[in-house]
Amino acid sequence: MSETALLSRADPQFLADVLEGLRGPRRAIPARWFYDERGSTLFDEITRLPEYYPTRNETALLKNCKDALAEQIASGGAVIEFGAGSATKTPLLLEAIDPEFYVPVDISGDYLRNSATVLQSRFPDLNIIPVEADFTQTMVLPDNIAYTNILGFFPGSTIGNFVPRSGVDLLRHMRATLGEGAKLLIGFDRIKSADVLVPAYDDAAGVTAAFNLNLLHRINRELGGDIPVDAFLHQIVWNDLEARVEMHLRCNRDIRFSVAGVDFSFDEGDSIHTENSHKYDLRSLRLLLRSGCWTPVAEYSDPEDWFTLVLAEAAPIQTAP
Ligand code: AVI
Predict the structure, then answer these.
(1) Can you tell me which atom of ligand 1 is nearest the CA of 161?
(2) Domains (ranges, CATH) in the chain?
(3) Distance from CA of residue 77 to its chain's centroid?
């Protein structure tokens, strides 16, 4: 395919983010672009790695707080999940609170429909209404859901992939989407030793490295790039000041390449910042929720305090004092 034909099919936002992000001096590409088909498959593999504790710990936590959740959340309402849903975590929540409607919201329509089909066979009486949308923006909920009893579900500590300013914006959009009287069940990965955090993002089997490097393959494939992928190394940094694990792609030699006809040159040691994964203590996660117009009402943590699920209520939108 010619480069013009290729670029006419490319996502214009992906192209803009990559050209802007490679320009430097502080090169960075938003983490949302990891998730093409290959990236989503690799992320799925990551969640099963021995070093990657968040999925295991959050799943165990959900199992353990099922009864407590059932006491706090009335059955027969609607669950709005931000993201297409996980094959293990979503059924646990649905079993616990028995809603009438389940509305998964995701930007990737194919992935959304596939996971909805799998879930429907397991919960034949549940009304599943997939919504293809960007959940980082306020959206209108399907009008056939019961607006009285709404629970947002945002597991996985995906909130950690947003810098605090964007995380607050995201929570406020969720508050606007879900409305007055809604609740939110949200997962937060906790601050812990770098000896645990770093291997979780730099596993021995190299799956996270492949996930990180796949971004460059995607750029080459979708944006007509000729980046020599073998010149880049997966690098993980625990940034204690910002309380976050950072992923970078570090260049191991001087190179030149082009993307969409634009030339770039990298020196040995230059890097592209590809992801932040913020970690929280209880005070910082409460502050983030309150800033995003949510009032925490219950917290569930595992015995090691490695992961916390918070149930929060929509707060009145107020600016003073
Ligand atoms: C999706 N997100 C919560 C994952 C995380 O832990 O920040 C993405 C991930 N990146 C590398 N490993 C996992």
Answers:
(1) 7
(2) 3-26+196-278 (no CATH), 65-192+280-313 (3.40.50.150)
(3) 25
